[in-house]
Every structure is written in C-alpha cells, then in structure tokens.
Specification:
By secondary structure, the chain is an alpha+beta fold. It folds into two domains: about 120 residues, Immunoglobulin-like (Sandwich); about 120 residues, Immunoglobulins (Immunoglobulin-like, Sandwich), CATH 2.60.40. Helices cover about 15% and strands about 40% of the residues. It has four helices and 17 strands. The chain has a four-stranded antiparallel beta sheet with strand order 3-2-5-6, with no helix packed on it. A four-stranded antiparallel beta sheet has the order 8-10-14-13, with no helix packed on it. Strands 12-11-15-16 form a four-stranded antiparallel beta sheet, with no helix packed on it.
Length: about 290
C-alpha cells in the first residue's frame, strides 16, 4: 500500500515537472513574426498577363490592330485595369505544329503579343477579364470574357489567361465597295479570307481553305437572288467567283455582295459585305460611243 502511494506521488511529480519544463521552453513570438502579422492586410502586387488569340490560330498582334483588354472587379464593378495587346503573332511552328504537354507554354515560348498589368490586391478577388478585337477591323470585331479568381501575391504569367476569339477576316476586294456596276455586265468578285490574327487561309496550309465553306451571295434588298461558290485564286488568301450584274430596273437601290467563310469543325465563321449602285447598260454604250 505504501509502495503504491510512493509510486503515485512520484508519477504526479514527474508530470508536473515535465509540464513546467514545457512551459519554460515555449518560445515567445519573434519580432519578425509579430511584424508580419501587422502586414496581413497590406496590398500585395499581383501581376496578371492576358493573351488574346484567334481560335485555332495565332495571337492578335499589331498586324490586325491587336486587342483591347479590361479587368473588372465582379463584386464592386470597379474597373481595375485596361489597355491594348500589341506585339507579334507568335511562332507559327510552335503554336500550330509542335506537340506539347498540358503544362508547357504554348504562346510564350517565343515573343508574342500580350497585355500585362500589376494589381494591388488585399484579398482574393473575383474578376471578369474581357477582350475585344481585332481592333483594325471593326466589321469583324469579336468579344470574349472569363471570370477568374485572383489571389494576392500569386502572379499569372507565362501564357497567362488566354481568351479565344472566334471568326474570320473576310474582305471584299473587287469590285471596290461603292463602285457603280453596269447592268448585265460580267464581273469577277474577289475577296480575301484570313484568321482573326491575320494568318492566310489557303489550300494545304495550317488554315486549309479546303475545309472551309467559302461562298458569296448576291442580294437585292434583303433577298438573296444568287449564291456563288468561290474558288481559290492562286495568290495569298484570295478567292473569286464570276457573276452577272442584274438589270437596273430590278435593283433600283443597287445590290449587296455578301461573302461568307464557315468552318463548322472549329466554330469559326466570318462575313464581309459591300454595296453597289447599278447603272443602266445604256450608259456603257454611250460611254463607248463616238466623241
């Protein structure tokens, strides 16, 4: 009985001794730790890089006027940053032809256009990033946006946040828009088709025109009166198709030519239009008559 009591007392004393020793060796917070806690709510510089690219093509660079980028705080609606993406369209071989792993940079391996800004963030912030382009071609302007959570001090660099714009640049080149056409005249329609980054669409290229439905429509008012299949003209990204100008009495307000490029596999669609007055064929005979 006495032995058990002694053992109990010894055990209790040992526990108290260890507890006291533990308290004695608990370090006080260092000055650096206390100092860091006072800065928990200070803003941290956070770099955000945005890259606007043509879907299944290159980056929108200076050749097509670049793109406009805005970053907005979703909760408050406050505009945090805005600016233009300018620069080069990127390396075509790396972007279009080189296999790569998921975490490998696709657009930043070589110099390519981008928009970069540094925000002062005090808290995780949900933002909407919006891009519009190509700015040099208002008729083909496209818009895309993404909602992204930004964390203070965690930069988004390398490829950054990538926004894809869908479409084609389609331009009617001949006859020149607004040029008067003579009734019953045989005219060759020519138009160019490029990706939104300015890359040429043509047969057997990275942007193979054989996979794109390229055609034209002749309209009187809002009514399509003829559809024309366009064929590659053998130079750059030009396509052509002949058509007859309708009678001036049938088109008193002129005609519209509408050229369409459609790729259902990629979701890229583009359109270019031009209006023309139609003159009577008698004007041509008078013009060619004796002076």
């Amino acid at each position: 009985m006495i032995g058990q009591l002694l053992i109990s007392l010894l055990s209790t004393g040992l526990v108290l001794l260890l507890s006291s020793a533990g308290e004695a060796f608990t370090p006080d917070p260092s000055e650096s730790e206390l100092d860091s806690k006072t800065h928990y709510n200070d803003p941290l510089p956070t770099t955000v890089l945005v890259r606007v690219v043509a879907h299944r093509s290159l980056v929108l660079g200076h050749e097509v006027g670049g793109a406009r980028v805005t970053i907005t705080d979703v909760a408050s609606g406050q505009l945090l940053a805005s600016g233009l993406q300018q620069g080069e369209p990127g390396d075509q071989t790396q972007i279009m032809r080189t296999p790569h792993l998921m975490d490998e940079p696709l657009y930043s391996g070589r110099p390519a256009a981008a928009f970069s800004t540094t925000l002062e963030l005090t808290r995780p912030t949900l933002v909407e990033i919006t891009a519009e382009g190509p700015l040099a071609y208002p008729h083909a302007l496209q818009r895309a946006s993404k909602t992204v959570l930004l964390i203070p001090g965690h930069d988004l660099t390398n490829d950054g946040i990538v926004l894809h714009l869908y479409g084609y640049l389609v331009q009617v080149e001949h006859p020149k828009p607004g040029e008067p056409l003579i009734a019953k005249e045989d005219v060759m329609l020519r138009a160019s088709v490029r990706t939104l980054s300015g890359a040429l669409v043509r047969p057997h290229s990275d942007w193979d025109s054989r996979k794109v439905h390229i055609y034209a429509e002749l309209l009187i008012g809002d009514r399509v009166v003829e559809r024309l299949q366009m064929f590659y003209a053998g130079e750059k990204s030009r396509f052509e198709a002949p058509f007859f100008v309708p009678m001036s009495k049938d088109a008193p307000d002129g005609i519209t030519l509408r050229v369409i490029a459609a790729d259902t596999a990629t979701g890229n669609f583009g359109m270019g239009t031009a209006q023309y007055p139609v003159l009577s064929e008698r004007l041509r005979s008078k013009k060619n008559g004796p002076h």
